[in-house]
Design goal:
Two copies of one chain form a homodimer. By secondary structure, chain A is an alpha/beta fold. Chain A is built from twelve helices and twelve strands. The first copy, chain A, has helices at about 10-15, 20-25, 35-45, 55-60, 80-90, 110-115, 130-140, 165-180, 195-210, 225-240, 250-265, 300-315; strands at about 65-70, 95-100, 120-125, 145-150, 160-165, 185-190, 220, 245-250, 275, 295, 325, 330. In chain A, strands 2-1-3-4-5-11 form a six-stranded parallel β-sheet. In chain A, strand 1, helix 5 and strand 2 form a beta-alpha-beta unit. Chain A is elongated, with a radius of gyration of 26 Å. Chains A and B meet through helix 4, helix 5, strand 2 and helix 11 of A and helix 4, helix 5, strand 2 and helix 11 of B. The structure holds a DNA duplex.
Chain lengths: ~350, ~350
DNA sequence: CTGAAAGCGCTTACAG
DNA sequence: CTGAAAGCGCTTACAG
């Protein structure tokens, strides 16, 4: 029954109505009589007609697509977030394009070009290292309400940000360690230029102060969130004369890399050093000692980000006050923390 | 200098040539005199012109997009493959759309619709559970050369398949275990309906036979590739009267789940039971004991799949003999295997 | 090498 | 409620 690809004219002919009526029964059925609707639907079934997206997009100046900018698609940390984004967006009928921002360093279009291209209706950015100039340009443009940040963000911009409650996470980590009796603590942070690095570090130190622990002599190490940098942190830790008894890591992967290296060196976790991570990636519960960590609801993050962006597409004007949606986090106590040795 | 979005007419006016010349200098510059090209490029710079994709797509009946069908975007196993796909495709100027096949169970278009929609130029499928009827329909259609499978596949179809050398991987695992002196072996496989399950299981058993080990009494357990199913396998293993001394797992995640559970129960890996995985995911080298496994080049898999599909887009006719590209695998020896106890 | 013009397949103001 | 017609922004045979 189907063979040659059919277009709206074929359907119009088949059903004996105008192309306008065909188009309307598809886009605004309430404008069309039931009788016509039925004829059109029959004809569509008979012809196997499908609306041509390119034509519709050209006509309506819309793309039905959302671009997601990810710093590294190969990093499993993002997978749950992306899954949440995809689910919500595809449910609303959007195509989801993923762009790895590391890959197209060279020929990458400027952010604004994605819009002027007619390539996207909106952009979701998971990359805090986004070029400032391009963001400023977008901010002043008519596309300002079509951009949102997830997880990471660039400070001093007015785009919505959907992120975890990093401050609370860091505070929970500090309080947990303090409650166990630790006094000499350390922090393995992300890279200095990353937004999350500052927020989590400050949150951790502030919470220590509030708990009556004078800060200033903590051991601080800057990693890059990866397993390997956890190993590096361990190397450095092992050189220390006076080692902290408890450590807060800005990512689970770094915590895991650290535990592995330090265990190989003969130390015991948590007896010799308590370790608490951040993220609660799936494997955290499966390594031994099972990792105590801060749970981030990554799926929810993606979900909410998609919803927020969709909301933004409806308004032409960007919201006046910068919109920040903070997702709750929680301490997940497992085996990698315990009271310090006397 | 840029404000209102400009179109090809603006550029034509600005440069004093026809829209045809503008279009040509962008798409087929060799057809245009250098003088005209220069005028056009100047005008483009001045106006900030960008080709409207929807219009070009409509006109050329092309989409410049490739759809990637993934069974579960949240599964980190796929991330490296997707990264390879995205890199290769975006380098060639394609948009990459990811669709989670679990998500859109309901409103998912039939495969053929993605083409008739004008939504894609090609489809890359990572999901062996693809509906057979839709594949048959595609196979007979004009789109037959625009589809390729990666990692997994559906048997008895003529689409290209880009996959790892699963047979060799299973053989290497068997030979490694046998070389260590193991005689009583077991296999934790994927789910029965998965293509990889059969291939890896058969490869393993055949290699055992060839090594002079009579097969038939191995312990076989069907998991689903996940950490949790590795734990389940361990539960079952612990009940066994006469336990195998060496186990081959169809995924690293299952191997890791198994090690964790069995270690909690007081067994020692590898002394009490040798474990070998499949995949070589990054964490495999960081757990303890470090996991002996079979390396799959996931990035390369994605890369080659993208190239193969792109190649297919150039030909109208599907290749006569089904195209199968097999990527080499290798044994990665670490700490989770050793000779059996006497 | 260049331009005028048709047309890709839709949607939607406009008129009835 | 319906249809005729314009037009979204390109590309490309065709003629010169």
């Amino acid at each position: 029954m189907v063979d040659k690809k059919s277009n709206i004219h074929d359907v119009a002919r088949e059903s004996g109505v105008s192309t306008a009526s065909v188009s309307r029964t598809l886009s605004s059925p309430e404008l069309v009589s039931e009788k016509t609707r039925k004829k059109v639907h029959d004809a569509i079934r008979k012809t196997g007609y499908r609306v041509n997206r390119a034509a519709r997009n050209l006509r309506t100046k819309t793309t039905n697509s959302i671009i997601v900018l990810v710093p590294n698609l190969g990093n499993p940390f993002f997978s749950a977030i992306l899954s949440g984004i995809e689910r919500t967006l595809s449910k609303e009928g959007y195509n989801v394009l993923f762009c790895d921002t590391q890959n197209d360093i060279e020929g990458a279009p400027r952010l604004r070009d994605y819009f002027e291209d007619g390539r996207t209706d909106g952009i979701l950015i998971l990359d805090g290292a986004c070029p400032d100039a391009e963001l400023r340009e977008l901010e002043k443009s008519e596309y300002a309400s079509r951009v949102a940040f997830v997880c990471e963000w660039v400070p001093k911009h007015s785009f919505p940000v959907i992120r975890s409650d990093n401050e609370k996470g860091a505070t929970l980590a500090a309080q947990h360690l303090v409650a166990l009796g630790h006094k000499h603590l350390g922090h393995v942070a992300g890279p200095p230029e990353n937004v999350l690095t500052g927020v989590r570090k400050t949150g951790f130190l502030d919470a220590l102060e509030s708990s009556g622990i004078s800060t200033g002599d903590e051991w601080i190490y800057n990693g890059d969130f990866s397993l390997e940098s956890g190993v590096q942190a361990a190397e450095s830790f092992l050189q220390l004369q006076d080692r902290p008894t408890g450590l807060f890591f800005a990512s689970d992967l770094m915590a895991i890399g650290f535990i592995t290296r330090v265990t190989d060196a003969g130390l015991k976790v948590p007896e010799d050093v308590s370790v608490i991570g951040f993220d609660n990636i799936e494997i955290a519960g499966y390594i031994r000692p099972a990792l105590t960590t801060i749970r981030q609801s990554r799926h929810k993050l993606g979900d909410l980000a998609a919803q927020t962006l969709l909301e933004g597409l409806k308004h032409t004007e960007p919201s006046l006050s910068p919109l920040i949606k903070v997702i709750d986090v929680a301490l997940v106590e497992r085996q990698s923390t315990c009271p310090p040795k006397k």
